[in-house]
Amino acid sequence: MPRIDAFLKLGLAQGCSDVHLAVGVPPMLRMNGDLVPIRFRDLGGPELESYVLEIMTRGHQDRFRGGHDVDFSYVSADGGRFRVNVFRKDTGIGSVFRSIPNDIPSIEGLGLPPIVGRLCDYHQGMILVTGSTGTGKSTTLAAMIDLLNSSRSLNIVSLEDPIEFVHRSKKSQVIQRELGTHLPSFAEGVRAAMREDPDVVLVGELRDAETISMAMTAAETGHLVLGTLHTTSAVKTIDRIIDALPIEEREQTKSFLSQSLLAVVTQALIKRPEGRGRKAICEVMVMTRAIAKLIQTDQTHQIPAQLQTGKDLGMQLMDQALLAAVQAKEVDPDDAYAHAQDKKALAKFVVDRSLLPRFD
Asked: Which of 58, 127, 160, 348 is the 20 to 30 A CA-CA neighbour of 204?
């Protein structure tokens, strides 16, 4: 059994989301959003490098020794599945192991808004799940793919970096391809997928102009495209896509967004009361004629007003969702306050009064 499995086993037993290993500090577990060190000595460079190299393939080892970060999936001897990132920093090597549940959660089980499930009824267009790192985007996409896989007869091509949740084909065929193992880039993966008779294409991350352009082409040509961006609101998502592409393509991009972007779901993970885990809170934008016109006329700053009044269509601002969750006692009010943009509505719920001057 690889020696690193002992740390991973401990992390799983504690119910953590991530195990952090880095030179010069003891192993740490992310528990309910906070990093907690375990009782162990500070890790040395040669020691940690030997742990990590033990679970790498030859290709991963060569890439890492060549000075690159490495991402891959790993299944421990106990059957735990992890997404792994290995990197170098000023004091030496570091690695993060993200725990991936063996069972794919449902949209209902994740507590996501019902509109997320209804979005899976579309046959073409683009749906984006966004948020900062570690907010559960991959988990939400896995739940959406599982719903499609269970309810419709489709060819689903999933491009990931690395493969996280493993989908077994049910009513649909699910083809999972991994960056660096099966394809050189997301853009090449989308290009290849277009020749594989797909109904649905999942793009793990729209990280560059070429990938965005290829994903847009797939959505425009009759496919349902699911993707992610590291943006923290619907407006920032739209602006990021427009700004990512060349200026001469800006009008074409705005036309695509107004016609083919179906929805943007932006997530944050907020602590539950009394440390009972975290809950996904979502801002939701569903494309309407009014929002399409705002995009075409460079008035995206007015989109939040549409979300605020679009409850009947399943839309909501992040602040609205945070307030509703606090009122329902589903999340910790202090953590919700910290994540809110307009904090006035949540100020009266704050328990730790020292937080108020920090933001006001």
From this structure: 58
